[in-house]
Amino acid sequence: MAIRKIITKENPLLRKSSRPVTEFDSRLATLIDDMVQTMYKAEGVGLAAVQVGVLRRVVVIDCGDGLMELVNPEIIEREGEQQEVEGCLSLPGESGVTIRPMKVKVKAQNREGKWFFYTGEGLKARAFCHEIDHLDGVLYIDNLSPNQN
Ligand code: ZN
Q: Does the predicted TM-score (pTM) go above 0.85?
């Protein structure tokens, strides 16, 4: 396993769409393991593959209650609304209040290709939205609330 370099907002890759994962092989496993290490080292709650320069639809999240590895994730239900402060490992030192759903349901594959469903509320819902947005080249600064108190 290895710590990978997290790219920052000057890098145009962050605005690109990531491609679906089709091969559930050892390269994918290595990518996921490296992303997990890199996320923990940076003390983040989530990381998308594009943030380590890989345009594949892979996300890792740990909001303090366990690690989730999401391959080809998709938000399939949204409920309610929240406005909370959000930041991003690719925009170090910055933060802003975003508008996000309070609760989401996500469908994703694991590293073996098996499909799972996850639900998240509050911080976890924000993490799902934030990381899945990365896969479409969207950053949290695109979802800022007009109320920046
Ligand atoms: Zn981010």
A: yes
